[in-house]
Write a structure and sequence with these properties.
About 30% of the residues lie in helices and about 25% in strands. The chain is of the alpha/beta class. The strands form two sheets. An eight-stranded mixed β-sheet has the order 6-7-8-3-9-10-12-11, sandwiched between helices. Strands 2-1-4-5 form a four-stranded antiparallel β-sheet, covered by helices on one side. It is globular, with a radius of gyration of 21 Å. The model has no long low-confidence stretch (mean pLDDT about 90).
Amino acid sequence: MAAVLNISGLSVDFATLRGPLRVLDGVDFSLEEGEILGLVGESGSGKSVSAMTVMGLLPDTARIAAGSIRLGGRELVGLGRKAMRPLRGRDMAMIFQEPMTSLNPVLTVGFQIAETRMLHFGESEPAAMRKAVEMMEAVGIPDPAARALDYPHQLSGGMRQRIMIAIAMAGEPRLLIADEPTTALDVTIQAQILDLMLDLREHTGTAILMITHDMGVIAQMADRVAVMYAGQIVEQAGADDLFDRPAHPYTNRLLQSIPSARHRVDRLKIIPGTTPSPRDFATGCRFQPRCEEALPRCQTEAQALADYAPNRLVRCWRCFEPAEGVA
């Protein structure tokens, strides 16, 4: 299968009064046609910044300091806003976390879906509106023909989220980035949305980058999983392998802190400490201040993301030097 997205050595800096602040540092991952990659990690790990960088939607205070983003072989780093505009919606689309701040408050929700069809498929407004109503029905909006004439403020939070999903999927993109796509949705609608995304993948070959805190969704949807911590990928593996045999201590603790029907325990484990801000990233391994398995070299030497097993990458000294004593 052809690579739809290939990110290599991606680093992003934010300008601050105290100088540049690196929030992404050497991020690498790829997505093939029809593949679903889960991107997981605590809040502040860099997941959403990664997505916004791919979409070319970083704020003016941010810049790509290094690396490459290739969409279907086309380099996106260095493209201006005018060159990026026609790619959004058709080649790649994104479901945002906050629909109320992403939807246009002065346009009906039906028209906002139809815009994608008119712009990228050349459909007339009546034809595009009919397609918009179909998409609204597909994402579970009741009475879609009437609701298509509503404005965002007239819909509930869950319905606005479904409109965002309909907009993103209306263009049948090659790459769909879903940033917490099932937030604020009840279980029934969540299952409906996930099934719809799977149908899109099956019928169009869309590659999906799934960003979520819900490991149950990742287990259900993802082919592979990339785990982020402090602006870096710390582990990447097939979904089944990662859930059954996590290698990095952070991945292991992340999974142990989540209720599981397969592994029942009396008390869930927690990850001590808090996610550091980019200003406070540790020297050496960035997870070592919170890691109970840290080795002496973890405090001073940064470990590269390296092959640990077939189809698995890990950024951890202990995985490669298990015999060394614990710090």
